[in-house]
Amino acid sequence: MQLNSKQIAYLRGLAQALRPVVMIGNNGLTEAVLKEIDSSLSAHELIKVQVAGDDRALRTALFSDIAAQAGAIAVHHIGKQLVFYRASEQVKPQARIVIPT
User: Fold this and answer.
1) How far apart are CA 19 and CA 90, in angstroms?
2) 74 closest CA partner among 59, 85, 60
3) Which CATH superfamily is domain 5-51+67-88 in?
4) Among 87, 47, 82, 40, which residue's Cα sits nearest to residue 61?
5) What is the DSSP letter of 38?
6) How far is Cα 95 from Cα 54, in angstroms, rounded to an integer?
7) Which among 31, 38, 63, 41 has a CA at the least distance from the CA of 50?
8) Which residue among 5, 22, 28, 56 is least packed, with the fewest CB closer than 10 Å?
9) Rounded to whole angstroms, how far apart are CA atoms 14 and 95?
10) 38 Cβ partners below 8 Å, 6+ apart?
11) Count of alpha carbons within 13 Å of 82, Cβ hemisphere only?
12) Closest CA to 69 of 100, 97, 31
């Protein structure tokens, strides 16, 4: 799924009110972290991930790795927070995110 800049901006706006649901610590991107990200995306569609550490290159690499491994869209990366979106059939219809076209 490809999103245009207007759609990405819409998701970024929705993500501002979110709190991080997954924290990546000193152990990095482990299987347990990926599993938690996957289950969070299935439950919420739009999630925020907090990354510990000050290595900017590592956070950038994590941003693209998580998106690829979770089958998600990398929405936003600012500081130590990463935002991802993946449409989910498990979310109740009234709670689904409707992205403008």
Assistant:
1) 21
2) 85
3) YhbY-like (3.30.110.60)
4) 82
5) H
6) 35
7) 63
8) 5
9) 13
10) 70
11) 24
12) 31
pLDDT given at position 32: 94
Instruction: Tell me the β-bridge partners of 24.
Output: 51
**In this structure, what token pair is assigned to residue 72?**
């998600």
Residue identified by tokens 């991107």 is 29
Q: Which residue has the tokens 């901006």?
A: 9
What are the structural domain ranges in the chain? 5-51+67-88
pLDDT tens digits in sequence order for the chain, 101 residues long: 789 999 999 999 999 999 999 999 988 899 999 999 999 999 999 999 999 988 899 999 999 999 999 999 999 999 999 999 999 888 888 788 888 88
Q: What is the DSSP string of 42-78?
A: HHHSEEEEEE-SS-HHHHHHHHHHHHHHHT-EEEEEE
Distances from the Cα of 56 to the Cα of 18, 41, 44, 78, 80, angstroms: 22, 24, 27, 10, 8
